[in-house]
Write a structure and sequence with these properties.
The chain has 343 residues and is of the alpha/beta class. It has eleven helices and 13 strands. Helix 3 runs parallel beside helix 5 and helix 7 crosses helix 11. It binds nicotinamide-adenine-dinucleotide and UDP-4-deoxy-4-formamido-beta-L-arabinopyranose.
Length: 343
């Protein structure tokens, strides 16, 4: 019988791409999402790609009783926990909302796992835990820096909650995945990133400017200590990223590791600057992007990219998509949104 995976936040950006990969790998998926930052139509896109509509329950992970009923209704072999609030700026304005949503959601899941014989949980963490790194590429043993925002702090605290719970003897396993900068869309353009309102992240801002929904992209600073003066990031294709989750869940469910908690960086291992990424976009879209250099954005990290050797060697996972294909997928998705009249 196919293994059943609970995917929280499964109609969201990374969650939806992961559901596709899970279904294509033969897993049964149950999505829970409160649709606070995603749209139910995402299920249609997943169905068009995979030929299968995942089970969906509109639930809030912070609602313990609702989650308890869900666990009584299905037996889950494993969980991939994406559901969280993720806007860094908003988290500074509304810290309690972030602490409640991101911490209580995880605590509820952890509390329900042992009693329901759920063996493992994959947790979405972030390179934000490294702050401004002392060196690049950054590996998993690098020190965790004081969080620059309540959002970042929720990732650090959640990692600690998992470690503490497992070390208390809880009969579960966990794989913590630290994503670098996920970008792009499914190559079919059936699913992709759909930020509500004005995008805070670079790539949706680029594609929305390219298509004319936004007038101009502001490039936040060209006076950093980098070759072209703009910040450097490790942009990771979202489908590559999604595939790592399938490997991680299998690793836990099949006890491929003795370790109860494992942490992996998910990145390409290559740093690309903001200006370099803009030029890739211009090349693959055939569009000249209207952008302007402005002042630095408060709290930005100058440069960070991953040392992904552990994921490469231990998980047997590697980012394979080129940055050109990735930006082309983001652009196709933007064109599809226009076709559908979404924006
Ligand atoms: P997203 O907002 O697209 O997806 C998150 C989903 O969770 C949304 O569909 C939202 O409606 C849902 N959700 C939020 N709170 C919920 C709750 N209490 N109950 C049920 N559903 C809830 O975000 P994403 O980019 O897909 O990110 C997924 C995860 O990866 C998050 O935990 C995020 O912090 C983490 N992450 C994202 C990035 C990134 O740049 N996108 C980088 C590192 C880590
Ligand atoms: C990338 C670069 C900006 C927008 C954020 C979170 C982090 C993680 C990933 C979840 C930066 C520049 C951006 C714009 C710009 N998320 N930029 N003009 O800041 O690396 O990370 O998402 O865990 O926690 O902080 O991503 O896409 O916002 O910015 O010049 O309009 O693009 O200054 O250098 P960031 P980003």
């Amino acid at each position: 019988m196919a293994k059943k995976i609970l995917v929280t936040g499964g109609t969201g950006y990374i969650g939806s791409h992961t559901v596709v990969e899970l279904q294509q790998a033969g897993y049964d998926v149950v999505i829970v999402d409160n649709l606070s930052n995603s749209n139910i139509d995402v299920l249609d896109g997943i169905e068009r790609i995979t030929g299968k509509r995942p089970v969906f329950d509109k639930l809030d992970c912070t609602d313990f009783e609702a989650m308890k009923s869900l666990f009584a209704k299905y037996h889950f072999d494993g969980i991939i926990h994406f559901a969280a609030s993720k806007a860094v700026g908003e988290s500074v304005q509304q810290p309690l909302l972030y602490y409640r949503n991101n911490l209580v959601s995880l605590i509820n899941l952890l509390e329900l796992m042992p009693a329901n014989q759920v063996k493992g949980i994959v947790f979405s963490s972030s390179c934000t835990v490294y702050g401004e790194p002392d060196y690049n590429p950054i590996d998993e043993n690098a020190p965790i820096k004081p969080a620059a925002s309540p959002y970042g702090n929720t990732k650090q605290i959640n990692e600690e909650i998992i470690q503490d719970f497992v070390h208390s003897g809880a009969p579960i396993k966990s794989i913590i995945l630290r994503y670098f900068n996920p970008i792009g869309a499914h190559p079919s353009a059936e699913i992709g990133e759909l930020p509500l309102g004005v995008p805070q992240n670079l790539v949706p801002y680029i594609t929305q400017t390219g298509i004319g929904v936004r007038y101009q992209l502001s490039v936040f600073g060209d006076d950093y200590h980098t070759p072209d003066g703009s910040c450097i990031r490790d942009f990771i294709n979202v489908v590559d990223l999604a595939k790592a989750h399938v490997i991680a869940i299998e690793r836990m469910l099949e006890d491929k590791s003795e370790e109860k908690v494992e942490i992996f960086n998910l990145g390409t291992g290559k740093g690309l600057s903001v200006l370099e990424l803009i030029h890739v976009f211009e090349k693959v879209s055939g569009t000249a992007l209207n952008y302007k250099i402005v002042g630095r954005r408060e709290g930005d990290i100058e440069k960070i990219w991953a040392q992904p050797d552990k994921a490469n060697n231990v998980l047997g996972w590697k980012a394979v998509e080129t940055i050109e294909d990735t930006m082309a997928s983001a652009w196709r998705w933007q064109l599809r949104l226009r076709e559908k009249g979404v924006m």
